[in-house]
């Protein structure tokens, strides 16, 4: 492989190729490949998109268009932990605004941003389906924290280094 | 397995092993503890309770005689973690790890119920120990969630024990495809995703469509904020969806199914994926199912975060790996669905109804519900209500029964103001209409919709302008941007609402909102856009005064809106 | 047949017909915005909504097929009101800079606003804000003016298969642009300008270079010469308001003189020259075992396409420069010498139906005269604007003739503007040169028309010459893939970048559609028939050029001035 300065990484490139392999030449697999690629790399930089575009036989334009359509995909690096504050209706009527305010004060970032130490990325999502525990947030896509109140949020964050 | 006989044998042996869950004491086992493993209870740390209980059982040397089963969602999320202890069918709530010892040592070993963990109805002094006696459950009718108290969602044998895959067996060996479709038609089942189209007719169109192969698709892109019914089904009883889809495959002549699930539901994806694997291992998916020569398999497609993908044409486009933008219909998916081929698309809850209809017959199913809305409906109750969680009731149950009897009314003695149904596509129904029976047509007549089943209860502290703005904000965020009325129109509606909520509204704004809403409903490309104005129209219809107060008096009576100056 | 009623008129149309088409059949005009027949049928703008009895919502007539017994009303007050509000919404997200827009008075959105009598926009909310991309020498993109009809994307993706554009983001933030909002100049965009041709508003326009030309004309030190591409004479009429298909050769020449050009020459002359160079190159390749099939190289959009997407096939390209660049090189050498003018003082202007020519003239290799051979390229649209700015009643100008010697041409040069024309011109010459016999019927009908890929075998002496002709890059792709797969046994292939050839180029008057393309093609062949000379090798000025200057086709000087090389560019670089 020729050394380049696009930010790609030899080892990741090989692993990405393995993700692409089952879908090579098959544009229908684009979303699945992107999902796995993001799990691998953490986000979807240009070199990843180009490798996927060429592997699946679609244009970079097509890949980019799909990525920017879906909220799950990110073009920028994210923190080690992703805090998704539920802004579904049940949470909204029970205090999403409070949760966001508390987190913004604690982390000093707005939704969509990442803390300077790359520890947390804060985002707002539409219903995590934990309406019974409203207001709730989900960390790293799996840990649901419900019945949030300003006082307990710092304790929750402490669990994530 | 290769035959119905084998299926029957598994059922028989497993059923015998599960007798204790029907209340029959066992000679070898002291108890089955059904611990709710729904996402709600998991986030209430039910797994820690399970660990504590295992420890207590070992300590007392009875680990071999007690099974702890993590079930699907039992419904009352706000009481979580909850558990049912069989054979007594005792319902415990708000469990903590430290409670494990008491349940093991007092209840299981000595037969003394742990009083402090029992359910007490609002206002009642005495607890109601038995799950079947609890109002909250007694008023419900479980078809879709039939297995959630009973089985381990990760055990295909458990599913089979409760008649699982018997309907598929029947469909494969005793029914012709046309008969299956006829049966579904006769059941009166209507799509549970929101629009309420006849499921049987949909199957019929697809069966009749030319073009092959055909596909069966499950819409698990439950995106309504405030709805988690499908999640509960997928987590608690994934095989019921698989079985429903396979039956449809037989009916329309399809061999491939897709389940499209939101990425936000990792547990549902995990359980479904495991269930598909188990079904394959057991010969209930794949080639030559039950030795009948029928082939059917299912693939999971994970949604990447776009509400509009709940719209059928958008979902199909998304399955193909593209931007989930809806396209005009016709052609309908029945003629041109995934990869342009005839496709049946139903949502999770609809699929979960199918085995019951096929097994017990259309007549039994159609006996439940109202004239035009048959069967049951699962709702996600949330908001300002005592019992939040998942419920399943016969169609035609009134809003009052749901909110005040099953839901336990409004907390902190606040007054009920409205119930919002149908999420961003639905509307707010005020107190005057609490006696409305919940069915497709009655809700539609009130300017709300059944939707997929989200029910958010609002009390006197909820500002209706704020609620309308919340939904419009949602729609603006989720609009795909393809058609101009939705892309620009909802944005303009939001801007007007935002002004009103900030005390910057002006005379004529309400009329302009109505004009925009009416036009967007009539001209937007897809269901998302066409229904997007509903929350605004319905709140204007029933709560116009609140709008006027914001505009004229620059006041938010509920103190929710942050008015400028 | 399906029977339905539209505005109380009974209509019978074939199944599959849309309501819009059915309505047009009975003279009912339904307004549209995103719709572009055969190219973009997506039902996105919602302007063409109609009322269908029994339907829950209004129905988009451009995508909805007719059904038996359907009762359609296209102009009820409710429909009109809905269309008007949708239009008002679109305008609420539009910069409303109509007076200073290149598409002023030639804009479908403006037309609709006028038709619907929009006098006020009641919404003063957010507007789309994305930066203008003026990186390309050919095309300028202003997303603020975009109505998201996606025609540009559709033509770029489906017709040209370049895919330089995609829909990005969603909702109100939706943007049609290259990935990462890359500048057009830095990517695979081939500058064909088909997007600018289909854009209903001013969101994608040609780069306007008229100011440079006005400045040159005002500069007394400059000797300003102009060449007009073959297709321009069947386009300029339209650019100043005449009917499509009008032949405007004499008027255009007269108009150019009135604007003050010192010499009015013709690209047809170098088209004839191209035939001699390219014809000889073909014969050389055939006889010496060179790379075959040989592919024409007149079309700069096509050249860039090949450099990006088929860099492995560049050896198939003829090394001949395009007629425009041959002209530029000769204007500043042969003509300069002949006229006794310092080439530094010559300002060479091209009138082209093409936006890619603006890019071509700036390619670094196009400096064989020692100067930039062609200084500036104007599209037909721009020249039309100059005529109008100058107050010329171009339509009624007495026709005038081109200047000598670079204005002398044949019918063969003329037909370069239509798909198949280069091939036909080549066959006319190659046949006679190889066989020494006079060609009886010089009309190669098989080369003509809009068919995407045309194939023919022509007997030239002992040789069965197998040829293919493609127009539109998507069609070129089909033939190129065959070459790649080793399944193409053609000798010679003509590729024109744009659908229909240059008469449908990206610099053509707007509108340009299939019907109008056909009219321009008809006019092209009419013009060919009117010519006294119709074979390139009979062009006396070309003969003189060889005698006085070049010596012989493919000679040393030819190679220096008339031939070029290509750069493999690849994709996503």
Automatic annotation (TrEMBL), chain A:
Cofactor mode of binding and number, as noted: Binds 1 [2Fe-2S] cluster.
Statement: the UniProt record of this protein carries the keyword Flavoprotein: no
GO molecular function, one term: metal ion binding
UniProt binding sites for [2Fe-2S] cluster: 86, 91, 127, 131
Record keywords: 2Fe-2S, Iron, Iron-sulfur, Metal-binding, Oxidoreductase
UniProt keyword annotation of Metal-binding present: yes
Top EC class of this enzyme: oxidoreductase
Domain of life: Bacteria
Cofactor: [2Fe-2S] cluster
Entry EC no(s): 1.12.1.3
InterPro entries linked to this entry: NADP_DH_HndA-like (IPR028431), NuoE-like (IPR002023), NuoE_dom (IPR042128), NuoE_N (IPR041921), Thioredoxin-like_sf (IPR036249)
Family indicated by similarity: Belongs to the complex I 24 kDa subunit family.
Protein name: NADP-reducing hydrogenase subunit HndA
Native organism: Pelotomaculum propionicicum
Gene from which this protein is expressed: hndA_2
From TrEMBL, chain B:
NCBIfam families listed in its UniProt record: PRK13596.1
Residues in coiled coil: none
Designated name of the protein: NADP-reducing hydrogenase subunit HndC
One term of GO molecular function: NADH dehydrogenase (ubiquinone) activity
Keyword terms, alphabetized: 4Fe-4S, Iron, Iron-sulfur, Metal-binding, Oxidoreductase
KW Oxidoreductase (keyword) present: yes
CDD domains: TRX_Fd_family
EC number annotated for this UniProt entry: 1.12.1.3
From TrEMBL, chain C:
Coiled coil: none
Domain 2Fe-2S ferredoxin-type: 1-78
Domain 4Fe-4S His(Cys)3-ligated-type, residue spans: 78-117
The keyword Iron-sulfur is annotated on this UniProt entry: yes
Gene3D superfamilies on file: 3.10.20.740, 3.30.70.20, 3.40.50.1780, Fe-only Hydrogenase (Larger Subunit), Chain L, domain 3, Iron hydrogenase, small subunit
InterPro entries documented for this protein: 2Fe-2S_ferredoxin-like_sf, 2Fe-2S_ferredoxin-type, 4Fe4S_Fe-S-bd, 4Fe4S_Fe_S_CS, Cytosolic_Fe-S_CAF, Fe_hydrogenase, Fe_hydrogenase_lsu_C, Fe_hydrogenase_ssu
Cofactors demanded by this protein: [4Fe-4S] cluster
Superkingdom assignment: Bacteria
SUPFAM superfamilies: 2Fe-2S ferredoxin-like, 4Fe-4S ferredoxins, Fe-only hydrogenase
Organism: Pelotomaculum propionicicum
A molecular function (GO) term: hydrogen dehydrogenase (NADP+) activity
EC number: 1.12.1.3
Pfam families assigned: Fe_hyd_lg_C (PF02906), Fe_hyd_SSU (PF02256), Fer2_4 (PF13510), Fer4 (PF00037), NADH-G_4Fe-4S_3 (PF10588)
Name of the molecule in the record: NADP-reducing hydrogenase subunit HndC
Keywords annotated in UniProt: 2Fe-2S, 4Fe-4S, Iron, Iron-sulfur, Metal-binding, Oxidoreductase, Repeat
């Amino acid at each position: 492989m020729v050394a380049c300065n696009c930010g790609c990484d030899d080892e990741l490139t090989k692993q990405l190729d393995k993700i692409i392999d089952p879908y090579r030449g098959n544009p229908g697999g684009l979303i699945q490949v992107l999902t796995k690629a993001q799990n691998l790399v953490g986000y979807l930089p240009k070199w990843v998109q180009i490798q996927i575009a060429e592997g699946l036989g679609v244009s970079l334009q097509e890949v980019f268009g799909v990525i920017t359509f879906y909220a799950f995909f990110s073009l920028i690096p994210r923190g080690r932990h992703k805090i998704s504050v539920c802004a579904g209706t049940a949470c909204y009527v029970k205090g999403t605004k409070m949760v966001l305010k508390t987190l913004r004060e604690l982390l000093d970032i707005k939704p969509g941003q990442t803390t300077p130490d790359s520890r947390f990325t804060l985002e707002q999502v539409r219903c995590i389906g934990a309406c019974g525990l409203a207001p709730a947030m989900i960390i790293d896509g799996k840990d649901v924290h419900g019945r949030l109140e300003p006082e307990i949020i710092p304790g929750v964050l402490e669990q994530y280094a | 397995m290769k035959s119905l006989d084998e299926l029957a044998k598994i059922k028989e042996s497993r059923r015998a092993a599960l007798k204790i869950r029907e209340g029959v004491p066992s000679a070898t086992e002291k108890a089955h503890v059904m611990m709710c493993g729904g996402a709600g209870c998991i986030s209430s740390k039910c797994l820690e309770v399970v660990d504590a209980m295992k420890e207590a059982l070992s300590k007392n040397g009875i680990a071999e005689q007690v099974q702890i089963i993590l079930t699907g969602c039992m419904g009352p999320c706000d009481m979580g973690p909850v558990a049912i202890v069989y054979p007594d069918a005792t319902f415990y709530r708000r469990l903590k790890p430290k409670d494990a010892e008491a349940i093991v040592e007092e209840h299981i070993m000595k037969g003394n119920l742990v009083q402090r963990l029992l359910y007490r109805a609002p206002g009642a002094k005495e607890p109601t120990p038995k799950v079947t006696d609890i109002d909250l459950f007694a008023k419900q009718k479980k078809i879709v969630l039939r297995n959630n108290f009973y089985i381990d969602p990760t055990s295909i044998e458990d599913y089979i024990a409760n008649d699982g895959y018997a309907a598929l067996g029947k469909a494969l060996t005793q029914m012709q495809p046309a008969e299956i479709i006829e049966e579904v038609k006769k059941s009166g089942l209507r799509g549970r995703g929101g629009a309420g189209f006849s499921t049987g007719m949909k199957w019929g169109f697809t069966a009749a469509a030319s073009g092959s192969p055909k596909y069966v698709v499950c819409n698990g892109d439950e995106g309504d904020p405030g709805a988690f019914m499908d999640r509960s089904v997928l987590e608690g009883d994934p095989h019921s969806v698989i079985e429903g889809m396979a039956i449809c495959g037989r009916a329309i002549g399809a061999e491939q199914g897709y389940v499209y699930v939101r990425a936000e539901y990792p547990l549902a994806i995990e359980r479904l994926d495991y269930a598909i694997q188990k079904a394959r291992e057991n010969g209930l998916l794949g080639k030559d199912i039950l030795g009948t020569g029928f082939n059917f398999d299912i693939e999971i497609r994970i949604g990447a975060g776009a509400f509009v993908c709940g719209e059928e044409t958008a979902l199909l486009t998304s399955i193909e790996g593209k931007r989930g933008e809806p396209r005009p219909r016709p052609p309908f998916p029945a003629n041109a669905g995934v990869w342009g081929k005839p496709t049946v698309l139903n949502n999770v809850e609809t699929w979960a109804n199918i085995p019951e209809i096929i097994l017990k017959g259309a007549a039994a199913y159609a006996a439940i519900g109202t004239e035009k809305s048959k069967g049951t409906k699962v709702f996600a109750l949330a908001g300002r209500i005592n019992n939040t969680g998942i419920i399943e009731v016969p169609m035609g149950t009134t809003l009052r029964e749901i909110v005040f009897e099953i839901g336990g009314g409004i907390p902190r003695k606040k007054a009920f103001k409205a119930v919002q149904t149908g999420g961003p596509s639905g509307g707010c129904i005020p107190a005057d209409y609490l006696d409305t029976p919940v069915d497709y047509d009655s809700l539609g007549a009130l300017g709300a919709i059944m939707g997929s089943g989200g029910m958010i209860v609002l009390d006197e502290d909820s500002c209706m302008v704020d609620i309308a703005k919340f939904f419009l904000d949602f729609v603006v965020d989720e609009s795909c941007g393809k058609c101009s009325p939705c892309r620009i129109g909802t944005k303009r509606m939001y801007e007007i609402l935002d002004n009103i909520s900030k005390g910057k509204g002006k005379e004529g704004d309400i009329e302009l909102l109505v004009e925009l809403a009416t036009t967007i409903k009539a001209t937007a490309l897809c269901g998302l856009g066409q229904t997007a104005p509903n929350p605004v129209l319905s709140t204007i219809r029933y709560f116009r005064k609140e709008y006027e107060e914001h505009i004229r008096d620059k006041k938010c009576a509920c103190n929710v809106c942050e008015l400028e100056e | 047949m399906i029977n339905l009623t539209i505005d109380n008129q009974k209509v019978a149309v074939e199944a599959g017909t849309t309501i819009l088409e059915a309505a047009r059949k009975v003279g009912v005009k339904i307004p549209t915005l995103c719709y572009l027949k055969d190219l973009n049928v997506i039902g996105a703008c919602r302007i063409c909504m109609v009322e269908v009895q029994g339907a829950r919502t209004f129905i988009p007539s451009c995508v909805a097929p007719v059904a038996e017994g359907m009762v359609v009303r296209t102009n009820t007050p409710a429909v009109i009101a809905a269309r008007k509000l949708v239009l008002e919404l679109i305008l609420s997200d539009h910069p409303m800079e109509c007076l200073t827009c290149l598409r002023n008075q030639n804009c479908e959105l403006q037309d609709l606003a006028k038709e619907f009598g929009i006098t006020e926009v009641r919404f003063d909310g957010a507007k789309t804000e994305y930066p203008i991309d003026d990186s390309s020498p050919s095309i300028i993109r202003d997303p603020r003016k975009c109505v998201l009809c996606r025609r540009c994307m559709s033509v770029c993706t489906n017709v040209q298969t370049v895919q330089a554009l995609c829909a990005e983001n969603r909702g109100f933030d939706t943007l049609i642009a290259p990935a990462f909002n890359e500048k057009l100049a830095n990517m695979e965009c081939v500058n064909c300008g088909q997007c600018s041709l289909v854009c209903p508003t001013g969101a994608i326009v040609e780069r306007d270079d008229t100011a440079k030309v006005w400045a040159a004309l005002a500069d007394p030190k400059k000797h300003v010469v102009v060449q007009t591409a073959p297709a321009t004479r069947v386009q300029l009429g339209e650019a100043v308001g005449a009917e499509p298909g009008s032949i405007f050769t004499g008027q255009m020449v007269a108009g150019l003189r009135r604007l003050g050009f010192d010499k009015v020459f013709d690209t047809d002359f170098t088209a004839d020259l191209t035939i001699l160079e390219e014809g000889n190159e073909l014969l050389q390749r055939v006889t010496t075992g060179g790379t075959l099939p040989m592919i024409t190289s007149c079309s700069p959009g096509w050249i860039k396409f090949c450099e990006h997407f088929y860099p492995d096939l560049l050896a198939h390209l003829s090394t001949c420069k395009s007629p425009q660049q041959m002209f530029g090189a000769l204007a500043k050498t042969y003509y300069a010498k002949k006229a006794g003018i310092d080439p530094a003082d010559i300002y060479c202007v091209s009138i082209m139906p093409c936006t890619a020519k603006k890019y071509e003239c700036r390619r670094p290799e196009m400096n064989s005269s020692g100067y930039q051979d062609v200084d500036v390229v104007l599209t037909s649209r721009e020249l039309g604007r100059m005529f109008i700015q100058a107050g010329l009643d171009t339509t009624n100008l007495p026709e005038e003739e081109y200047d000598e010697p670079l204005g002398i041409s044949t019918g063969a040069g003329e037909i370069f503007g239509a798909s198949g024309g280069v091939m036909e011109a080549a066959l006319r010459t190659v046949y006679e040169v190889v066989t020494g016999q006079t060609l009886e019927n010089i009309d190669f009908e098989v080369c003509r028309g809009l068919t995407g890929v045309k194939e023919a075998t022509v007997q030239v002496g002992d040789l069965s010459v197998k040829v293919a002709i493609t127009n539109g890059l998507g069609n070129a792709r089909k033939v190129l893939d065959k070459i790649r797969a080793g399944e193409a046994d053609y000798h010679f292939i003509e590729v024109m970048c744009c659908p229909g050839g240059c008469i449908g180029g990206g610099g053509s008057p707007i509108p340009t559609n299939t019907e109008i393309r056909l009219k321009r093609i008809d006019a092209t062949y009419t013009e060919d028939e009117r010519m006294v000379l119709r074979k390139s090798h009979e062009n006396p000025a070309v003969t003189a050029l060889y005698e006085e200057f070049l010596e012989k086709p493919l000679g040393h000087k030819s190679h220096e001035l008339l031939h070029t090389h290509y750069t493999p560019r690849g994709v996503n670089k």
